[in-house]
Amino acid sequence: MSLVRKVGATLGAAALSSFLAGGASAVDLQFFFPVAVGGKAAETIEELTNEYAAANPGVNIDAVYAGSYQDTVTKTLTAVRGGTPPQLAVILSVDMFTLIEEDAIVSFDEVSKGNTEWLKAFYPSFMENSQTGGKTYGIPFQRSTPVLYWNKEAFAEAGLDPNTPPANWEEMVEFGKKLTKKDANGNVTQWGVRIPSSGFPYWLFQGFTTQNDVILANSDGNMTNFDDPKVVEALDFMIDLSKEHGVMQPGIIEWGATPKAFFEGQTAMMWTTTGNLTNVRDNAPFDFGVAMLPAHQRRGAPTGGGNFYIFKDSTDEQKAASLDFIKWISAPEQAARWTIATGYVAPRPDAWETDLMKKYVADFPAALVARDQLEHAVAELSTYQNQRITTIFNDALEAAITGKSTPEEALKEAQMQADRILKAYR
Questions:
Q1: Range of 208's domain?
Q2: 316 or 14, greater pLDDT
Q3: Which of 54, 82, 93, 283 is an S-S bond match for 129, by CB 3.0 to 4.6 Å?
Q4: pLDDT confidence of residue 25
Q5: Residue 1 resides in a domain
Q6: pLDDT per position as a tens digit, 173-215
Q7: Residue 2 falls within a domain, yes or no?
Q8: Which phi and psi angles does 240 have, rounded to 5°?
Q9: Is residue 377 part of a domain?
Q10: Which residues of 302-312 are buried (b: 16+ CB within 10 A; e: fewer)?
């Protein structure tokens, strides 16, 4: 989907103010934005941008809604290599190393000209995927973490406390067995739990590895731990939810179809992004709950979602304009509105202290779950050559899930391939 919107914007940066005061024409920015998750993302970003425009003319922003995250980074890199990059974009936080390697982006430390105090406003767990080498390259915006959703009516029907989700792996299996329903012919009509494994299976699987107290990659983006025994153990357990315990549909489970399966009673529990929170609230025909992912050796989940980036091949005036717009749209009031509209996690604590957000969570306490889980969150898997590395890892997960390989064999091969690629970056 693409939509082009011309807007004006406030430009507080001294360089830009001076530039415009000198009678120069308005600054033009191109802004790539992904629309990838159910909810009101496109409408809300348009409202915010228009509001910014109405109050503060000065720059034209050509907002290009570029499709999914993958579509957006692909279009962006094509534009960069063709010499026509956007000035700013929202792209996955895990693509930071790729953008750095392409020499496509500039650090916010440089653009802010030493005025970096504002960077401390964001949650440290989100900044893990936004910083490297002592510099900040991304500003958290539409950030997320996976959470567990459960159908309270299904729990009550199964004799479970509808207000108590599973606290750990063992309870997820125990509850799942009670929640799995079969018809007279032995066909499952309701699964206990649904954990998607299509598209980008590494992300939800990283919930299991984090809970098993193992990190998949280092913070420098040049070393992975795919064949660690704890990773193997986590994959064994995920597969055993289907193979041994019979509480989850076997084989590859589609990401996009999961909320619908939840709404239609095909599963009593599901793992998916908090970015689906508004979607679930609007469409679930039953009372539901939201909880942190079940614990094992520890609690934990990966962060996810997109950051703002500023592109190097821009004028000083364009960089100043991009910075001012990003600072405004990520500020507390705007961050609160974005969270309420979409379900993404407001990426800074002061957004949760606004009157707007306090009213929202008083009416909908489930919105606090993802925020509180940040205390236990880790950086999403991210490395140099990130798309190649995650494809290798995803292929290994698929091979193990479909029974083409054992978890140990699949992960050992994935680690060998990753080592061959990443050794050049050590």
A1: 146-302+385-425
A2: 316
A3: 93
A4: 65
A5: no
A6: 999 999 999 999 999 999 999 999 998 999 999 999 999 999 9
A7: no
A8: -70, -20
A9: no
A10: bbbbbbbbbbb
Helix residue ranges per DSSP H, 56-130: 69-81, 96-101, 108-111, 124-127
Same domain flag for 29 and 138: yes
Amino acid identity of residue 7, one-letter, is V
CATH number, domain containing residue 354: 3.40.190.10
pLDDT for res 86: 97
The rounded distance, in Å, linking the Cα atoms of 231 and 261 is 28
Provide the edge-to-edge strand list for the sheet that holds 288-291.
269-273, 146-151, 288-291
User: Are residues 309 and 295 located together in one domain of the fold?
Assistant: no
Say which DSSP state 423 is in.
G
For residue 7, is it within any domain?
A: no
The answer to whether 255 and 198 have CB atoms below 8 angstroms apart is yes
The radius of gyration of the chain from alpha carbons, rounded to an integer in Å, stands at: 22
Statement to judge: residues 170 and 270 lie in one domain: yes
Comparing C-alpha atoms, which of 258, 278, 293 is closest to residue 343? 278
- For the chain, what is the domain count? 2
Answer for the pair 83, 369: CB distance below 8 angstroms, yes or no: no
Question: First and final CA of the chain: distance in angstroms?
Answer: 39
Tokens 């900044």 locate to 127
SS3 238: helix
Both 238 and 108 in a single domain? no
Q: Which of 325, 342, 370 is the endpoint of a domain?
A: 370
- The string of pLDDT tens digits covering residues 59-72 is 888 888 888 888 99
